[in-house]
Amino acid sequence: MFPSRYWREIPHRYRLEAGKCTGCGFVAFPRRLVCPQCGQREFETFKLKGEGELLTYTVIHVGPSAFVDDTPYALGIVKMDDGVNITAQISDIGLDNIEVGGRYKIEFRKIQSDGHSGIHAYGYKFIPIR
Amino acid sequence: MRDVAVIGVGMNKWGELWDMSIRDIFTEAALKAIDDSGVDHIDAMYIGCMSSGLFVGQEHLGSLMADYLGQGNIPASRVESACCSGGLAFRSAYMDVASGMNDIVLAGGVEKMTDVGGDGATYALATAADGEYEVYNGATFPGLYALMARAHMERYGTTRKQLAEVAVKNHDNGSKNPLAQFPFKTTVDGVINAVMVADPLTLMDCSPITDGAAAVILCPADMIGKYKNHPAVKIIGSGHATDSIALHSRDDFTSLKATEIAGKKALQMAGKKLSDINLCEVHDCFTIAEIVVTESLGFFEPGQGGPAAEAGDTRIDGKIPINTSGGLKSKGHPVGATGIAQIYEVVSQLRGESGERQIKNAKVGMAQNMGGSGGSTLVHILEVI
Amino acid sequence: MIGITGYGAYIPRYRIKVEEIAKVWGTDAPSYKRGLQLWEKSVPGPDQDTITMSVEAGKNALIRAGISGEKLGAVYIGSESHPYAVKPSGTVVGEALGATPDCRCADFEFACKAGTEAITCAMAQVAAGNVKYALGVGADTSQGAPGDALEYSASAGAAAFVVGQDNLIAECELTYTYMTDTPDFWRREHEFYPQHGSRFTGEPAYFKHTFGCAKGIMEKAGMKPEDFAYAIFHQPNGKFPMRAGLKLGFTKEQIEPGWLTPRLGNTYSGASPIGLTSTLDIAKPGDKILVVSYGSGAGSDGFIFKVTDRINEVRNMVKHTVWYLDENKVYLDYGTYAKFRGKIRKND
Predict the structure, then answer these.
(1) CA-closest candidate to residue A107, choices C169, B181, C328
(2) Which of B239, B244, B300, C196 gives C185 a disulfide partner, CB atoms 3.0 to 4.6 angstroms apart?
(3) Catalytic residue among C112, C121, C172, C213
């Protein structure tokens, strides 16, 4: 992974920085240049609180190149309390104990590494709120 | 706009075509379509291909294929819309002819997927999802459809067995298709007990990795007299719609809005009702996809796609035959070629040339081709004249 | 007065028992457990490293400090397992905590002393008036060579401290460092696992420096062991810190709240800092705490803290250290542990 591609997404991935439309309040994660809801083009930086409810999930047994050593791993969509949905891996939970409707929070984790010598790529995963 | 007809179709036997390169695969299918139509040249061509760059390290397919097809310097374009690149090539060719820009236009699709390993193929396919906000975090295509399956099961009580029934039916149909990659039959237990790919989807819920191509020849309807090898089939409806490519950005994971809109547009343009449709090829990249697509097109109420599959409503002798070709599941899914192969099946059925899997009195057929997790859809309706 | 404004720990949830490791190498688990006074250790998940644990410990520390990350004027990470040989861990941590760009940053390495070194430098920046708040973190995902005695103890964890001059939960009354060149443990560039001088790591290394530092700082402060409510010593295993503490004249009761190694393992740069977070979780206002780290190579950093009233307001703002240690754990078999730790040779 070329570092610039990773680097430019850092505010989203490290700090959950979204954009909030100053017109209608639509929360864009990642940020957008134009609001899909009201068409306005001004957004203010809005930090997601990082907690929400699991809408759906799967356990992936066949992974793409960057994740072959991580299988089986759980992937889910969480509706954040701030109103935006996020897809991420679910960590720190037994794969049989995941339930739709469960409460999850974001934790900072390593997402993938580019081979033995490329960059480490960090970001967010869901972990159950205990 | 001029009326447009399909006057030739071609497709090769799909599978792991170890001794054929992407150019051979495409050219073979294209030559079959040319021969089937009886044309002596083509004026332009559109090739649907999702990711030849990642699969075989080759872009610039329009020119490459025009050259290898012996068509010299004609305008040739490669179009891409993930797994509905083929459907988009068909619509592009249709618009080209309808507009009056060109007369004899080839629409083709190709994918050569076996020159990379399984994880490489999973990676290449995953580029049809949101690269930074789904794939970066480990999403795969079976994974995204598994997220839809879980949501559908939670909301409507769709069962594991109902998902399996889709695969059983499509393999039954595919067993009657000499061009299918996996023409074997299977059972509900065989599907459920196959190796897990993305819970709840097993390997037998997933369409395979396939090498293959398909091509069709289009011309203005008023020129078909010149090339009347077969009953003429007219394109009467074309619908195209998009949606967010990130599944999580949608309000509902249990329906497919782009499919709903493209289906309605195509029907409106054709001046037909769903009840006029005699058969439909849908994009069953995963068993859950067929269930959701048949609901979103309106063949069944939301939540009734699973029970309908279980009841046999979608079999060749059912209320609405779905995927008589065997679908992506049994026929194979060389992603860029799939949308054209669907047209191949609909045209064959409307011509009455589908052999063992022929539907009686097929007059109007539909094809629904979908990209990604539903971020793009093309629906076409064809009618035999 | 300089001191700690906020503190936080992070320990991964995975554990492996001494028996599970001994089974693979055909060693006698009871004698290892007796000799090391240690029965299990924490293991980082495949998605965890010094950076991720530092971020989570740092978030906990910021919550207790009651400040946002942008208030941090410096971020210092001490570890012997920085994920990059070249490229700082601290930039990632600083960015994730929102401290950038108006922020000083450095990574430290001094075997197991790197964490206290980071805290010392954080304090120095605040004392010099260069920054208002600074973050010092000790974190490690340490590796012992397969089958080596270190494999039974090398574990993972992090502790982070926001250092400042106001809203203190503990005032730092004195610091002192005792350092010599003593090659008891090392890892050469490009080598995966460290090597050590076996029993040479004991008397001339750990004990000499720990004693030198503890005696030195108490002498400077004019204090005796009984003046302290608690004492925390670096803990490469369960035995060394207890033996050192008792020999210095401390009681078991003073040592135990920060003596986590028996069920945590040796978190290297995180070891004495996590001992401190665990002790702060139960300390009362007015309590004095002695911290003496040890890093091979070799040296010890000493600190004397005096706990303030504010501890009662902040200690329950985030989960206590023992929650991470005792309430959230999952045991691994050796195969899964070896996979998680990258000990299995694979093709690229």
Answers:
(1) C328
(2) C196
(3) C112
Q: List, for residues C23-49, the tens digit of each pLDDT value.
A: 999 999 999 999 999 999 999 999 999
User: In this predicted structure, what is the pLDDT of residue A6?
Assistant: 95
Is the CB of residue C52 less than 8 Å away from at least one CB of chain A? Answer: yes
pLDDT value at C219 more than 90: yes
> Which residues form the domain of C65?
3-169+312-340
In this structure, the answer to whether residues C101 and C191 fall within a common structural domain is no
3-state secondary structure of B275: helix
Give the pLDDT means over successive 10-residue stretches in chain A (130 positions): 94 97 97 96 96 98 91 97 97 96 98 94 97
Same domain as C156, residue C22: yes
Contact C49 A116 (CB under 8 A): no
ipTM above 0.90, yes or no: yes
Provide φ and ψ at B111, rounded to 5°. Answer: -150, 135
CATH number for C229 = 3.40.47.10
Which pLDDT value is given to residue B294?
A: 98
Q: Are residue C268 and residue C199 in the same domain, yes or no?
A: yes
Confidence of residue B354 (pLDDT cuts 50, 70, 90): very high
To the nearest whole Å, the CA of A130 is away from the closest chain B CA by 23
pLDDT in tens, C139-183: 999 989 999 999 999 999 999 999 999 999 999 999 999 999 999
B73 near A CB under 8 A: no
Please say whether the dihedral angle defined by the alpha carbons of residues C55, C59, C65 and C69, taken in this order, is positive or negative. Answer: positive
Chain C residue closest in CA terms to A66: C348
Residues C49 and C132 in one domain: yes
Domain boundaries, chain B: 4-116+210-227, 139-206+238-384
Task: State whether residue C141 sits within 8 Å of chain A by CB.
Answer: no
Same domain, C21 and C100: yes
Nearest CA in chain A to C12: A92
Same domain for C8 and C145: yes
- The HSE-up count of residue A60 (CA atoms within 13 Å, CB side) is 29
Query: Closest chain B residue to A79 measured between Cα atoms?
Result: B248
Query: Which sign does the torsion angle of CA C176, C182, C188, C192 carry?
Result: negative
Q: What are φ and ψ of residue B138, in 5° steps?
A: 105, 10
C215 and C122, same structural domain?
no
Q: Say what the pLDDT of residue A88 is.
A: 98
Domain membership flag for residue C348: no
pLDDT tens string B268-313: 999 999 999 999 999 999 999 999 999 999 999 999 999 999 999 9
Q: Quick check: helix, strand or coil at residue B52?
A: helix
Task: Give the total number of structural domains in chain C.
Answer: 2
For domain B139-206+238-384, give the CATH number.
3.40.47.10
* Nearest-CB residue to B137 (from A5, A61, A87): A87
Interchain contact, A69 vs C339, CB within 8 Å: yes
Summarised one tens digit per residue, pLDDT across range C109-151 is 999 999 999 999 999 999 999 999 999 999 999 989 999 999 9
- Across A81-109, b (16+ Cβ under 10 Å) vs e yields ebebbbbbbbbbbeeeebebebebbbbbb
**Residues C51 and C129 reside in one and the same domain:** yes
Domain covering B4-116+210-227, topology: Peroxisomal Thiolase; Chain A, domain 1 (3.40.47)
